[in-house]
Write a structure and sequence with these properties.
116 residues; alpha/beta; globular
Length: 116
């Protein structure tokens, strides 16, 4: 299941459950829609994804390439230890900017909302 949340500095895509073929297609559609609408900073929240196979990871790499081609960026937050191992074993951990959670990513990127 895919959910989209538009923030001040980025768009956040929540992914729930294992990434099935349908979920991968929905994820691609969500990213394409955001790019078309001009949202160039996309963050994938994978904290609720327990499992992903190499095919799912390959799809993420393809999405990353498409986003970069359109002068955007794709960050990932919330990887569990199994997914961290998958990213490392497949050699893609250096492609993605990965953060423990959204708050950490916002702090490190300087994207915290202004406090009035």
């Amino acid at each position: 299941m895919i959910g989209i949340e538009i923030k001040e500095k980025f768009s956040l895509i929540h992914v729930n459950g294992d990434l099935s073929e349908d979920d991968l297609a929905a994820l691609g559609t969500a990213i394409d829609t955001l790019m078309i609408k001009g949202y160039r900073h996309v963050v994938l929240d994978l904290k609720d994804v327990a499992f992903m196979n190499a095919r799912g990871l390959g799809a993420l790499v393809n999405h990353w390439g498409q986003v970069r081609f359109k002068r955007g960026d794709l960050k990932i937050v919330g990887l569990n230890s199994r997914l961290v191992h998958l990213f490392r074993s497949m050699g893609v951990e250096q492609i993605f900017e990965v953060y423990p959670d959204v708050q950490d990513m916002m702090e490190k990127k300087g994207w915290l909302p202004a406090i009035a």
